[in-house]
Design goal:
119 residues, alpha+beta, Porin, seven-stranded antiparallel beta sheet, 2 helices
Length: 119
């Protein structure tokens, strides 16, 4: 148990350790901008994150990086349109770079949304 919030993603409906895919946790308890560390199940020590998510949910934008590098794997930002301004319907643009798992990116964005809905 850590003082950081933690989310675990499993295969299917399972919650068994053998079906763990990855774990997400906040990089620190107090954050002005969102910063999440993602650890694959094959990285149980969690010394160095496998991926990280940085962004501002207030601005509805984030970037997903490979580990502690500056290599961008995906980006999300709010798409401004007449419809979004007049009707209050937010639309988002997500760019996923080649050789990156789309489902993984969607899962991270869903976790980010869940974190920010809870606040």
């Amino acid at each position: 148990m850590t003082v950081h919030d933690r989310w675990q993603v499993f295969r299917g409906e399972s919650t068994e350790e053998k079906d763990l895919i990855f774990t997400v946790k906040r990089s620190s308890m107090i954050q002005l901008k969102t910063k999440l560390h993602v650890f694959l199940a094959t990285n149980p020590k969690e010394d160095v994150c496998d991926f990280r998510v940085e962004g501002s949910w207030l601005e509805r934008s984030c970037i997903i990086y490979s580990g502690e590098s500056n290599t961008i794997l995906a980006q999300m930002h709010k798409k401004h349109s007449v419809e979004s301004v007049l009707l209050g319907k937010d639309k988002f643009m997500v760019t996923v770079y080649p050789n990156v798992d789309y489902a993984f990116v969607v899962a991270l964005i869903a976790i980010l949304d869940g974190i920010n809905q809870g606040e």
